[in-house]
Amino acid sequence: MSHDDLVSLLPELILCAGGVLILLADAVAPALRRGWTAVTLLITGVAAWGAWQAWTTLAATTAGSEAAGADPHFLFKSCNGMLETSRITLAFSLVVLLATALCALASDNYLRRERILGGEYFALLLWCAAGMLLMLCATELLTIFLSLELLSISLYTLAAYHRRVSVAVEAAIKYFLMGAFVSAFVLFGIALLYGATGSTRLEMIGPALAGQAGSAGGHVSAAATLGLLLLIAGFGFKMSLVPFHAWSPDTYQGAPSPFVAFLSVAPKVASALVLYRLLEVAAHGTTAARWTNVVAVLSALSMVVGNLLALAQTDIKRMLAYSGIAHMGYLLVALVTFDRTDLAPVIVYLVAYALMNAGAFAIVGLLYSRPGARHEIEELAGWGYRYPLLGGCLAICMLSLGGIPPTMGFLGKYLVFQQAVAAGHVRLAVLGVVASLVGVFYYLRVVYVLYMRPERRQPEGLLIDGWGRAAALIAALATLVLGLWPADLLQWLIAATGVR
Amino acid sequence: MQTALDLLTGNTLTRLVFFPAVACLPLLFFPRGPRQTARAVKIYTLVVSLVELGFALVLVGGRLLPGGGFPVTADPRCSWIAGYGIRYDLRLDGISMPLVVLAILLVPIVVLGSWRGIERHWPAYSASLLLMTTGVLGALMAFDLFLFYIFWEVMLVPMYLLIGIWGGERRIYAAVKFFLFTMAGSLLMLIAILWLAWSYKGASGGTWSFAYQDLLRLDLPAHTQIWLFAAFALAFLIKVPMFPFHTWLPDAHVEAPTGGSVLLAGILLKLGTYGYLRFAMPLFPRASHTALPLLLAFALTGILYGAMVSWVQADAKKLVAYSSIAHLGFVMLGLQAADMVAWQGALLQMVNHGLSTGALFLLVGMLYDRRHTKQFDEFGGIARVMPVFAFFLVFSSLASVGLPALNGFAGEFLILAGSYRALGWPAALATFGVVLAAIYLLKLIQRILWGPLTKDENRSLADLGGREVLALLPLCVLMLWIGIAPATFLRPSEQALAATLTEYRQRLSGPEVQEATLRPPSPPGATLPAAGPPRAVAVDLLHPAGTAARLVASATATPEGTAGIEREAAR
Question: Which of A163, A458, B177, B430 has the fewest CB atoms within 10 Å, i.e. is most exposed?
Answer without folding.
Answer: A458
